[in-house]
Amino acid sequence: MPPGGAEEARRPREPSGRVVTRALYLGHWRIDVTVRDGVTPPVSAAALGRAVARAAEAGGAPKPASIGLILSDDAELAVLNATHLATSSPTDVLSFPLLPPETFPPHAGGPERAVGTVPSFPLPPGRRPHLGDIVISVERAIEQAYAGRGGQTGRVRWSPAEELRLLATHGTLHLCGWDHADPVEERAMRALETDLLVRG
């Protein structure tokens, strides 16, 4: 399929309900956007896929590659948060990177490291390495945007669509080895997010 085209595929039912997945091909990236049953995003899958693709490019992700974007709710994010981060509350976005940070270029405030390459493991013909998955609570994004607790500062009132674009961008940068625990890295990450959102 040519870059920029889109293909829709359906996955079988999961116990929690209907799952719809669209595979978006955007340049070097295949973004698999999954929408959980009962979740209605206030922005198109294509718009979120473009945000993910821009962030993957800016983060220096190896290409071609695939990324999973799952649009869910507070209940699933709370379970994932408890399971993986030992925190009992829901959150707005979680990222699950599959490649080590050394795969990506160094950046301001990030750990000193030598840049490596995509781990060399055999893939079936035509398969792309998978960078990881991003899970966003659409429910939380909408609530934060309307309540004025959105944006990078948690004090922005804007559209739920903009909040979701920010969360998709933020989650993708986490897949690319970015973090915000160090103040220098946090400033660099926030500046890159702002630049990507303005361009988008």
Structure overview:
- α4 crosses α5 (183-199).
- The chain has 200 residues and is of the alpha/beta class.
- The chain has a single domain (6-199), classed as Metalloproteases ("zincins"), catalytic domain (Collagenase (Catalytic Domain)).
- It is globular, with a radius of gyration of 16 Å.
- Residues 1-15 have low confidence and may be disordered.
- The protein has helices at 45-58, 74-85, 138-147, 160-175, 183-199, and strands spanning 6-10, 19-26, 29-36, 65-72, 93-97, 130-137.
- The longest helix is centred in the last third of the chain and has 17 residues, at 183-199.
- It starts with 5 loop residues before the first strand and ends with a helix.
- The protein has a six-stranded mixed sheet with strand order 1-2-3-4-6-5, sandwiched between helices.
